[in-house]
Design brief:
Length: about 425
């Protein structure tokens, strides 16, 4: 393929996004040659086309050849049941995360809940307290929405500049699914929220009694009591039989194994909104209730711990998201942010959902630094790593949307780098 015919739109080899289709057709033309169709040497039928395979199964499984899996941290005896597992972002396409690969975050392990014995209580500042069983909720009208969810600690090692890591190990605490459930506003209307109620305190049925407070304005806007994920019942690690789902806000507030919603005139000040999930600042103060996840993007390929086998043309691809709306554009740089080019948005641009982007790039075999930055529908532009540090310091653990940089060496090795 003659790379001279491609229009370069930024430094260090970035090619106009309009050439992506032409690159695909160029590769496909090889499949139409006579030799590959067997006209010269005779058609070779592979073994799997000669022998019947196994029949239908009760529950599907991925191909053994894909070998996709989450990465989980080592068990901590001082924190039983706590920890995370991360989504393999670098090996995935599209925007929907399969349920089996959706990231996990637990504070006391996964409770084994029998839905027949589980209840959701709505009480506090309401006209009539209500109790719902799982079967009760299944009878209510439901809505389905595609949303991302991100742990607020996702990408924190990018801020401190820790060496090494892959897209999965650094940023794998974000996933995207179709969530189906009952709008929380429907249940609150039925309970009759009193005028003085300003917050909803949500509590889970796990051993940590996980609790978070949600402002009433958000609770009646787009919050769901989610019962299904990607068409099947929410899995135990995602909160079966029901979870709160708070679109666009830090993942911890979407309380799993939901069992109580108490209407209050102020926040409950749970452990996980005082001692944790706050943002310490350089002046030793701290921000509390910084709920929305900021505008962010990530190049997933090429990315950390990958190797480019030879100089040539590659497709840079990645994901972008924002808790404040939809993604309106993504720019990519191959020279560490000196010049930028517009990427192609390959997926639907839904509010508070992942968006897939791509752009062709000609790697000349020299050093390069790949970056991406997203712009959302509210006009927010993804912050640089330096801007995040200037605002929050290097001790900030949560809410780190800074631009991720991947360094490509002359040997083709790709690694995380602090720029």
């Amino acid at each position: 393929m003659n790379s001279d015919k491609f229009e370069k739109v930024a430094g260090n080899g970035l090619i106009s996004r309009r050439h992506l289709l032409g690159m695909g057709l160029g590769g496909m033309s090889l499949a139409a040659t006579g030799s590959l169709l067997g006209a010269d040497a005779g058609l070779q039928i592979p073994g799997w086309s000669k022998t019947p395979g196994p029949g239908p199964s009760a529950y599907g499984a991925p191909s053994a050849h894909t070998q996709l899996q989450r990465v989980a941290g080592a068990p901590n005896p001082l924190y039983p049941g706590g920890g995370v597992s991360r989504t393999p972002l670098q090996h995935m396409q599209g925007i929907i995360t399969p349920n089996s690969l959706h990231f996990e975050r637990h504070h006391a392990g996964i409770p084994d809940i029998d839905p027949a014995g589980h209840q959701l209580v709505i009480n506090g500042l309401v006209r009539q307290p209500l109790v719902f069983s799982y079967e009760n909720l299944l009878k209510y009208p439901m809505v389905s929405k595609v949303y991302f969810i991100e742990c607020s600690g996702n990408g924190n090692s990018n801020t401190v500049g820790a060496a090494g890591g892959s897209a999965q190990s650094i940023h794998g605490l974000v996933s995207c699914s179709e969530w189906t459930g009952v709008p929380l506003s429907t249940l609150l209307d039925e309970a009759g929220v009193l005028p003085e109620a300003r917050w909803v305190a949500a509590v889970g049925a796990d051993a940590a009694s996980m609790g978070r407070s949600v402002p009433i304005e958000k609770a009646v806007d787009d919050v769901l009591v989610a019962l299904f994920q990607n068409g099947e019942p929410v899995r135990p690690e995602q909160g079966y039989p029901m979870r709160l789902f708070v679109p666009g806000w830090e993942g911890n507030i979407s309380v799993k194994w939901l069992t109580q919603l108490k209407l209050l005139n102020g926040p409950a000040q749970f452990r996980d909104e005082t001692s944790k999930y706050t943002d310490p600042l350089p002046d030793r103060s701290a921000r509390q209730f910084t709920f929305p996840m900021e505008t962010k993007s990530l190049i997933t390929s090429p990315s950390g711990e990958m190797t480019l086998p030879r100089a040539g043309i590659y497709k840079i691809t990645g994901l972008a998201w924002s808790g404040s709306g939809s993604i309106r554009g993504v720019e990519v740089s191959a020279d560490g942010g000196r010049t930028w080019a517009d990427a192609l948005l390959e997926s639907e641009q839904w509010d508070k959902a992942l968006t897939r982007f791509s752009i062709p790039w000609e790697w000349n075999g020299g050093d390069a630094i790949l970056q991406s930055r997203a712009i959302d529908s509210a006009g927010n532009v993804q912050l640089t790593r330096e801007a995040v540090i200037a605002d929050r310091g290097t001790d900030a653990f949560y809410h780190n949307p800074g631009i991720q940089s991947w360094a490509v060496s002359s040997q083709g090795d790709v690694s995380s780098v602090a720029v």
